[in-house]
Every structure is written in structure tokens, then in C-alpha cells.
Design a protein that fits this description.
Elements: H1 3-8, H2 12-15, E1 30-33, E2 36-42, H3 44-53, E3 67-71, H4 73-78, E4 80-81, H5 88-97, H6 99-102, E5 132-137, E6 140-143, E7 153-156, E8 161-166, E9 169-170, H7 173-191, H8 195-209
Antiparallel strand pairs: 1-2, 3-5, 4-7, 5-8, 6-7, 8-9
Helix pairs in contact: 7-8
The chain binds zinc ion (ZN).
Length: 221
Amino acid sequence: MSIDRIFDNMPDRIKVLPRNDRGFPIPYFAAEIDGKRDFRIVSPDKMAHAVRNDLCWVCGVRLGKYKAFVIGPMCGINRTIADPPSHRECAIFSALNCPFLSSPLAKRRASDMPEGAGDAAGFALKRNPGVTGVWLTHSYRPFRPHAGKKGILFSIGEPLEVLWFAAGRPATRDEVQRSVETGLPAIEEIGRVDGEAGVAELERRVAAFQHLLPAGSPTDL
Ligand SMILES: [Zn+2]
């Protein structure tokens, strides 16, 4: 992703963030490791501070009544996510420009990661979903997963709007559907942890999710 291109559509709140040595704005959530902010690692202190003070996860400024979550399709199905919300414009900017979110083939660089860092609570899927959603809602609720890695997850409220992106542009319905088909086996596995009730609930959620896919043509911003 060229730095010139991302500056074309950068929200003002992101323009004022500190920059890394390549000139990219450093998101609020990035932890400091050995004196350097690392985009791959979420700061647990920032997480607590953001949730307590209703701050945007990307720019660190207070949120309004709308909360935008940057999600993969599987998060949209189980309505659970590891990261707290952002402003709508900050979430869209991230979905379009974050190298991991915008490049379907990108893998999170795992070199020099502190042991266990970067893994979300509960059962995080390590795949790159290839498409990224921005889920806009009025409500969410933090909770502690009862199994898997310890930590905090967020249950996201009814969507007012869901926008989908892939490769730095709006995603097509087919792209999102393909991501769902390839990701489902992994969450079916997790659903089985809760037995038959878990599987039935998952089926209900997959059906409900169909209404949140893009229409035939790309989403309109
Ligand atoms: Zn923001």
C-alpha cells in the first residue's frame, strides 16, 4: 500500500496520530515493545482505558453513539470480537488501508513477537479472512470467555449497517460468501464445545448473517 494513496482519504483524527519510521499513522491500540510501537500487538492497558472511557480503538478520541467494529465474517456470525469499537470513518479507513485487513493473502508477520502476544482471548481464528466488515451498532458488551485463552471479548449489538471490504475496495457478495464457506468449519468446531445447543445456535446465526452480505453490487460508501 503506497503511503501517498492512504493520505488521500485519511480522516482528520487519524492524520494527527504519531507516525512510524515509514510514515504510517500508529493506531491508538498498538503496544510499545522495546521502545517501539508494534502494530501487531494490542496494549492491554489501552484496551481497558478505551473501554472505560469510550474511546476509539484506532484514533483514541471519544466515540459518539455509533460504535463501529472491524470484523471478519466469522465474527459477524458469532457476534463476538476481540477488539473494542472505533468511529465509523476510522473503522472504514482501517479496513481499506491496514495491510493485514486489506490484503487477502497477507499473513501477520510473526517474527520477534513476544511469547503469546497478539493472540486474542477465547478461540481466535488465525486465518486471514480475505474480507473485512465494518459493523455499525449502538451497543456492545465486554465479557470473559468461559473457555480458551483468558481475556476480554466483546459481544456486538444489532447492526445498523454492515459494509464489506477486500483488497482496499468494497467487497462483492461472492467474496464475502466465499470467506464464510471457508471459515465455517473452524467455528463449527468451536460451536461443538457447547454441544448440540451450540451447533443449533450457530446454524441460526449463519442464516441471520445472510441478510448482512453485500447486495450483488459493491457496497456504497
Ligand atoms: Zn477514531
